[in-house]
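notes to self, project folder thing:

trying the whole complex as one job this time. last attempt i did each chain seperately and stitching them together was a nightmare. two parts in total, labels are on each line so i dont mix them up again. if this works i'll redo the older ones the same way
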Amino acid sequence: MSFDDDLRLLAPVEPPAALVSRVRRVAGEELAVARGPRWRVIALRSWTRMALPAAIALTLVGYLQWAVRAASALHR
Amino acid sequence: VRDPSERPLVDGLRRGDPAAFDAVYARYRGRVHGFLLRLSRRRDVAEDLFQDTWVKLARNAHRLHEDTDLGAWLFRVARNAWVSHVRWSMLDVSRLVAFEEDALPAAPALDAEGRADAARRVGRLEQALASLPAPSREVLLLVGVEGFEQEQAAAILGISYEALRQRLSRARTHLASRLATEHTNKEAPI
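result (full assembly):
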């Protein structure tokens, strides 16, 4: 038997039951979102991929500006 | 779709039918998980990538083309997830940990003389495969273990058919050499 034949003996590896159910649940939620109204999908994706990161970045920049101004004022 | 029995599953996925997703999940989860485990050689990484792969399927189910080859699609996504992981790992030193030997699947149970030999052979093969460089490992996993046609494997890996043939030939030579080395080491007198 060649090792090519042997390679076929390497069986699929069933994931642990906890992982199977967790992935099924998470994927099921995604499937439900994708199946929902188109506007909701776009709104949700826009929020998670653009609006939320932009809000966090703006907050961070605002905080840093304030911190620099406050430190400069203290120094003066 | 290569397998005609998959056509209703693809249609179901395009409609967002959870039953179709469950059927695809049941059909491919062991294969995808085994592929990622053998490719990444780490159980925690394989589990993360496994989840990413299935979430991507759920998220993109409605965009699948009606003649999508589900197996090739899933393995391409899984492989790309692993490539992304490797790129990120290069930036994260904490992930550069030693190879987990226990991440490999256990050899089949020894319940008869004939099976014992097969189990030993499979065990040696798992170890030899795990010791190969990633490009050799992934091509052998796709063509040798998963049984994809060479054209399909080339598409999954995003390389030309000729490049795949060369890579496969090198990988087989690597594997044969690793197996031969191990065999010689075992045979050598103490």
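what i see at first glance: DSSP finds three helices and no strands in chain A.
need to look closer tmrw
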